[in-house]
Amino acid sequence: MNKALHSLGEYVLLMKKSITLPQKWNMFFKQLIKEIYKLGVDSLWIVIIISLFIGTVIAIQISLNIESPLIPKFTIGYTTREIILLEFSSSIMCLILAGKVGSNIASEIGTMRVTEQIDAMEIMGVNSANFLIFPKITGLMIFIPVLVVFSMFTGIIGGIGASYVVDGMTPASFEYGLQFYFNQFYVWYSIIKSIIYAFIIASIASYFGYNVKGGALEVGKASTNAVVMSSIMILLADVILTHLMLT
After folding, report:
1. Alpha-carbon distances of 212 from 27, 208, 226, rounded to whole Å
2. Which residues, 6+ apart, have CB-to-CB distance to 96 below 8 Å?
3. Rounded distance between C-alpha atoms, residue 59 and residue 79, angstroms
């Protein structure tokens, strides 16, 4: 318990040090663009590929499990849409990104720590936490809603594609199900969740990387711990946000 409270205190103090006005705005924006490209744009391909296949699999599995003549076929499209909008494109996709982006952030900052680059910044009077961490948090929070929208779109495209090749559902009934009782708030709900998840991923990964002590082996451990803790906190936040926003 003491160790957990100590880590929480370190995390809060690091975030207080990180989330401040940049000393040089031109350097901040240069770093921000770099982080958006590195953390966000480079993750676009994996988001599209995973969403396309998962959307296809969801539609196929639902069609195979709805065999009752009492259940209309458009239920397949409706259920696929709800799963993708409510949970997959925000929570599950961010869990995947926690592995890719979180480990990247933790290993990058951790390597700078063990090679004493962060210490050199501090000696020169630079707020190293603000310079390194704030652009990462801001960049991921800006671009992750874009990834979520792409995930929604490609996931639904995957489901539509499945309706053309799988027996038991037709494209017309699937598209009708996609439009049936559509609630646009669910899109905003997923986007809001993803912004909070982006903060969790970037801040926790930065914390573990920034506080590395030791050598290269400790950097690997920090990356693993960052992914595990980010995933746990995303799931906890998912429960809380679902209760607050949908009940």
Report:
1. 25, 6, 11
2. 46, 47, 50
3. 8
Torsion sign over Cα 126, 132, 137, 142: positive
Give this prediction's pTM.
Answer: 0.90
* Inter-residue contact 59 to 158 (CB < 8 Å): yes
Write the CA distances from 223 to 31, 66, 90, 114, 194, integer angstroms.
Answer: 22, 42, 22, 14, 21
Find, among 15, 41, 21, 3, the residue nearest to 205 by Cα. 15
Listed residue (101, 63, 58, 61) closest to 81, CA to CA: 58
> Which pLDDT value is given to residue 146?
92
Distance of alpha carbon 62 from alpha carbon 76, whole angstroms? 6
Q: What six digits make up the tokens of 17? A: 């040090």
pLDDT at 216 over 80: no
Q: What is the pLDDT of residues 161-189, one digit of tens each?
A: 888 888 778 888 888 888 888 888 999 99
| Strand, coil or helix: 85 | helix
Residue 71 zone, left/alpha/beta (φ > 0; ψ -120 to 50; rest): beta
pLDDT confidence of residue 245: 87
